[in-house]
Please model this.
Amino acid sequence: MKILVIGGGGREHAIVRRLHLDSPAPELHAAPGNPGIAELAACHAVAVDDLDGLTALARDLAADLVVIGPEAPLVAGLGDRLREAGITVFGPSAEAARLEGSKTWAKEIMEAAGVPTALSVTVTDPALLDAGLDRVNPLGDVPFVVKADGLASGKGVVVTGDREAALAHGRTCLAAGGSVVLEEYLDGPEVSLFCVSDGTAVVPLAPAQDFKRALDGDEGPNTGGMGAYSPLPWAPADLVDEVVRTVARPTIDELARRGTPFVGILYCGLALTARGVRVVEFNARFGDPETQVVLERLASPLSPLLLAASEGRLAAQDAPRWHDEAAVAVVVAAAGYPAAPRTGDPITGLDAAQADGAHVIHAGTAIDDEGRLVSAGGRVLAVVGTGPDLASARAQALAGADAVALEGSHHRRDIAEAASEHAPALLAPPVDDATPSRAESAAPDTAADQGDPTQEATA
Model:
């Protein structure tokens, strides 16, 4: 089988790595790819926003399957272009990808499907922001959640206890065009669950949890994700079944009823609140860095699963099998990330990072004119450790991250620390007056995070 993976970030490297482990291994191609992906696949210098170029590449390669990694080309209609060209695609149509591209439309789908989520209101007039905040927060004693309605390059969400700051962010979003979504605040630990769908059937993968804040203790600014782990020893035993029954399947059914079948990954971002599971967000693709740990634990082949979903025969496909081992990913970020990541710094120590069994996923790397591996984005690498439990997996990942030599880099040392003691990593998302909460894993990865300086921010 010949597979083309679209994208050049950590998520795509993790996908390519897992596909490479399939037996028999498919012939792998990537566009644009990155230096890590290039060790496993043939890379083609076509940007993710070049829909015509990507379609031509898939046609020229005679690809049996195209896997679209980032959401920006999905929302832009790459899946539609490829299907019109007769190419098999794992990734939703532009209309179905509106689940991620429009928070208002996603809320409409959830309401129609009876999916539990936060109370919300969409505002298009700055004069109505005050009344909107009162509607979703009538008591005024919990944080305000204000979201730009569309993709916003990681700058679209603020969770704050300061009403004036909430109003100011709402006015800023509206001044930029479009609308703003105001939501009630959801407490409780958060979970990411990827569900594979062929438009009818739904197959869940293993749940994971990620960490959005830049610093230990969930301090500092919001990022695209500083680490993740799986499994979740503290989560209810029936969590996956409940999410499929109350969230994923009703959503897929509602989209099918509307004539908009969803083919690909339905990313369910969830809060486990005191009132039960609530949806924080939907994404239309694999998440990053959760993909790095979820696919690391996948014991069965990935390519047959993706192909079966793309061809509408997921119900006949064997269920995924999982390793008992835990996986922890620790992200190594560039100096200045997330505010102003520095690029072009040499990276060494990767052999040492992988000496004890960890492996390195490239996210924001490049080869410079001197042939050196250098930083090319904010989130530069993810070191993935495995072990019989989370404690040993995180120790391996941290040792690997410590071995990476990148001037000015930083990484968190508390990824999966609380979970390794069988407690939720966070009882509730943190709140402050200036930065988004890690409750919002909707925050997109920027081009710098993805390691492709030619592409627009994706997430």
Observations:
- The chain is about 30% helix and 25% strand.
- The CA atoms of residues 190 and 429 lie 8 Å apart.
- Residues 425-459 have pLDDT under 50 and may be disordered.
